[in-house]
Write a structure and sequence with these properties.
Layout (H helix, E strand, L loop, with lengths): L5 E5 L8 E7 H26 L10 H5 L5 H26 L5 H30 L5 H29 L5 H30 L10 H15 L2 H6 L6 E7 L8 E5 L1
Antiparallel strand pairs: 1-4, 2-3
Helix pairs in contact: 1-3, 3-4, 4-5, 6-7
Length: 261
């Protein structure tokens, strides 16, 4: 696998101006975010089952809790937090693959990343508003949820396709990681297909595999696996760190950047 170039900073002056630097380790941030989101949503479900619902008879889905008064706030907070954290994942992915992406793929990746982040925050808000007030915006909610799912699937497909091309040059440990990614993506895709049939047949015989509780369990499984997908993918990025630097002082001098192999 090709090594990424090292970037060395060279200053024009012997005494450079002080820098205020903020470092973000992509894998650690995404892992902490996924754990926090999982705890919030699982805690919200546990609270719902112990107070408002008898979950043995009726298991509320993630979307149902997102519009249920009192439990919707956790859903909104989780989606809003994700809409701010996911750009870190998309930025790191773009940096690692932009030399391999064509111009069309670059523009597609950037556009779909923006749509995912915006639609995620919108669908959580509209889900709550529709349940409380009568507004003719249900079509906007459906558009937001559909945009989020479709764009996410396309983005994962783009990443997965690039990794398929690179798999011949992966190290042994990376091949094991990629095999685990294949299983994870295949499982999520299978659950999505099963959930699609649940939406069509879930209101039939409650003793069949297509029923409301099975549908909710499927969606909770999709959520549990999908929330850990970004940090798992980011393990491939060699513990990438995003650095944000702000130069202190007026009229800062321009720094020269030397890129060497």
């Amino acid at each position: 696998m090709d090594e990424y170039p090292e970037v060395h900073q060279k200053n024009k002056h012997s005494s450079p101006r002080p820098l205020s630097t903020l470092n973000f380790n992509t894998y650690k941030i995404l892992t902490c975010h996924s754990i926090l989101t999982f705890i919030l949503m699982l805690g919200n479900l546990s609270l719902a089952c112990s107070t408002n619902f008898s979950c043995q008879n009726f298991l509320p889905s993630p979307g149902y809790l997102g519009c249920f008064r009192g439990h919707d706030r956790v859903f909104i907070a989780s989606c809003t937090l994700s809409s701010f954290v996911l750009p870190i994942f998309f930025t790191t992915t773009y940096i690692n693959f932009n030399t391999r992406f064509s111009e069309v793929k670059k523009k597609t990746f950037v556009l779909l990343s923006l749509v995912v982040c915006i639609s995620l925050s919108m669908l959580s808000l509209f889900d709550e508003v529709i349940s409380v007030h009568y507004f003719p915006i249900e079509h906007i909610y459906r558009l937001s949820s559909s945009s989020f799912i479709v764009c996410s699937v396309i983005l994962i497909s783009l990443i997965f396709n690039e990794l398929l091309i690179l798999q011949v040059s992966l190290k042994e440990s990376e091949k094991n990681w990629f095999f685990g990614l294949k299983i994870l993506v295949f499982t999520i895709a299978s659950l999505f297909i099963f959930d699609f049939f649940q939406w069509k047949f879930a209101f039939g015989d409650p003793r069949s595999i297509f029923n409301e509780n099975a549908q909710a369990a499927t969606e909770w499984s999709i959520f549990a696996l999908s929330v850990f997908l970004p940090p798992y993918i980011s393990k491939f990025y060699r513990e990438s760190t995003l650095n944000f630097s702000l130069k202190i002082g007026k009229n800062p001098e321009v720094e020269l950047t030397d890129i060497s192999n």
